[in-house]
Amino acid sequence: MRLSRRGFLAAGAVATLAGCGAEAKPAQAGELLRSKAKLPTPFQVPLPIPPVKKPTRSDAKADYYQVVQRKASLEILPGLKTEVMGYDGLLPGPTFDVRSGRTTVVEQVNELDVSTVVHLHGGHTPAPSDGWPLDLIMPTNGQHAGHHMSGGDMTMGKRTYTYPNRQRAATLWYHDHTMDYTAPQVYRGLFGLHIIRDDEEENLPLPKGDREIPLVIADRAFDADGAFLYPAAKDGPGVESAYMEGVVADVTLVNGAPWPVHEVDAVRYRFRILNASNARRYELAFDKGPATFVQIGSDGGLLDKPVEHRTLVIAPAERFDVVVDFSQYQPGDEVTIVNKLDKNAGVLRFKIARKAVDDTSIPATLSSYAVTPRPSGVVRREWQFRRGDAGGHRGWTINGKAFDPAVMQAQVKLDQYEVWSFVTDVHHPVHVHLAPFQVLTRGGSSKLSAYDHGWKDTVDIRPAEVVEVLVKFTAHKGKYLIHCHNLEHEDMAMMAAFETI
Ligand code: C2O
Ligand code: CU
């Protein structure tokens, strides 16, 4: 029998969750995991930028890459070593920077001692490359062959994923998707960016080069010796279930560095912000005005027109593409992005270094693609995200069912619009594979939240809320997933399979 995190819960060692749930902390699902390590003073470590991955070869059809998933010992906290599981041994992994319409072929080599699966989040990807949670890359290292699971298309040691990138420019990311183990494996480092570019976007006068910066935000906790802390069954009965709301931790990493600092010119910058945290939501704000976040893009690419935000609420897996204008500050000024959902705790600091020439601007019209079609008479489906007891399973469910890879909860025809409604009990960031969607209504009203604009693949749904989205799948037939992107919820079975036909 495989020891799954769900199996552990099903064994009955479940502590009562009363009082530690979302009721007490409506803005933040999850239990805080505190570091034992001595933590650094914030805003000392420079902001790293993940390296851009280079192809090993290219031909008329595609660019070919190889990534090695391996352990590495990194100095994340100054003076301490943390063992990570990283793509190329990095945290975050290397950034793929690719052109729309040009195929990316990635050979993923697993040199870890656990099985892995790679999913390109936001990718319009054929099913065999989408990262079905049982299409395991088995490790060649170690005595036992990783997690014992069957029923998927297993490969030994490596697997080749093909991404057609036949989609508009957008900030995607790739991460582990192993059934029942996604949360601990992403936590230990298996995540990175995949940026798609196209002409429409490149012709805009937006900041580029070293003024276009990814910000991958993820919270982590550290043991006294620097090792990652993550609740595990071996720590005693009930440890994992105590964290079934989700693991939130006390160190905020940006691009893998704790509370970093970055020097900027007094000009506009473009930031591609990804919340790669397992469970933590953020409400990002500047500690002192006048800077705001001018949103230009969402999960699925450019908005039709820019939207200005004083604060940015970002749930796990969401991306916000924003422009910040530092010309409103003086050289020598410091401005800090804080998280209003965590007592204004600092996330990242900017030091304004000097004045500089800025020939960028934010056009009033960004994209012609982002127009909402609102067809009538479409197929409707409801997806309910709730805590549940399904078949002896204590955990999280969709439509009353724990994830079962053998069960297709829906058969969805390609090329037709559907309206999907997502219904929640507590906070759940809901993600759909294969196609982006547009939010139609929230809480029964077509007055959306400020963060619902554009094409999204993950939507932050508040407690006891209903959100309706318009979705259409194209091109690829096969098995795909809808799930909660709170990774502890996902591992505890809040995932459902559907089939495109
Ligand atoms: Cu980012 Cu199915 O996940
Ligand atoms: Cu959830």
Automatic annotation (TrEMBL):
EC supergroup of this enzyme: oxidoreductase
Domain Plastocyanin-like, first and last residues per copy: 75-200, 248-332, 394-499
Enzyme Commission code(s) on record: 1.16.3.4
Alphabetized CDD domains for the sequence: CuRO_2_BOD_CotA_like
Matching InterPro entries: Cu-oxidase-like_N (IPR011707), Cu-oxidase_2nd (IPR001117), Cu-oxidase_C (IPR011706), Cu-oxidase_fam (IPR045087), Cu_oxidase_Cu_BS (IPR002355), Cupredoxin (IPR008972), TAT_signal (IPR006311)
Reactions catalysed according to its record: 4 Cu(+) + O2 + 4 H(+) = 4 Cu(2+) + 2 H2O
Presence of the UniProt keyword Iron in the record: no
Keywords, sorted A to Z: Metal-binding, Oxidoreductase
Molecular function GO terms recorded: copper ion binding; oxidoreductase activity
UniProt family annotation: Belongs to the multicopper oxidase family.
Assembly: Monomer.
The protein's name: Multicopper oxidase CueO
Organism of derivation: Kribbella sindirgiensis
Lineage of origin: Bacteria, Bacillati, Actinomycetota, Actinomycetes, Propionibacteriales
